[in-house]
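Appendix B.2, paired examples.
Example (i):
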Amino acid sequence: MTSLRSVQKMVAARAMLGETLVVGADDPSPVAGAILRSLRVNRDPRGTLTELLRADWGDVCGPEMPFAQVYASVTVPGIARDEDRWHVHERQTDRFLCLAGRIVVAVADARPDSPTQGRLLLADMAAASDAPAPYMVAVPPGALHGFVALGETPALLLNLPTRLYDASDERRVEIDGSGVVFPDGTPFSWQAVRAALG
């Protein structure tokens, strides 16, 4: 049963976050090139099996988006990876999956030639007790991005980037002064995300 308090909190979050907040692959992405890819969980009496990346998923894999490596990171609840800075890659696409816990991935479009320049995507990804979150987020090159772990348990993020790690391809951009704002005009901060969704 949903409590009145949780409904009121979601209404307040939607008022602040508007169309930036997505909770599933069926929600439209407000950022051009940021792809929300639905995952299918196969359940039977033994447990579950979920395919995470396939070569025939042309929207997130193929000649323009090859597989290069995989890594996992565990983040304790309440922590944002780089509280005060965005990550950005010039050539790499990140493909994020939440295997355990809950993360909110933020993608801000600061690309000057993008049709969605200035738009923000907040992908709320919560894993089930027996399966990963039901969708993947692909972050295009040039888009500012980061994530925060929310909930009661550590979050396990899996990334399937399109390139091997190359420090020269990655840079950081200060959140303050980046010009990223929520739809209501409030400057972006991880504390605001925690307050709205935590």
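Example (ii):
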Amino acid sequence: MRRVAPFVFVWLAALAGCGGPTQVMGSVRFGEPFELKVGQSVVLGERQETLRFLAVLEDSRCPTDALIQCVWAGRVRLRVAVAPLSGDELPLELHLGDEPSSAVFGDLRLELLDVKPAARLDLIPTGEYRATFRITLAR
């Protein structure tokens, strides 16, 4: 029997990679989905800009391994940063849940498509998170 949970599971992940090295995963093509783990970054196409996955700020998604019925599906919020190869980072927040979000910077749009693993009852270690993004030209 399933019960309705009167609360929402919320896990806040600590910022990862602060002061640590960033793992550059190569270059991505515009319009094609790509995946990053916390602390990883990619070069955006032929441009001199990088995208870095900084942190999971919130994960209040309904756990898939719970014997409960959630009244709200929850959401997951991420912090990323875009920067020229030699310049200051522009921090951005993206989320999935109520509605997927995207962010426009310059002539580009960054979309958050998916976040794995699925929510579960136990705390997900920061290193297990993988986010799927797509970069397109903003129109």
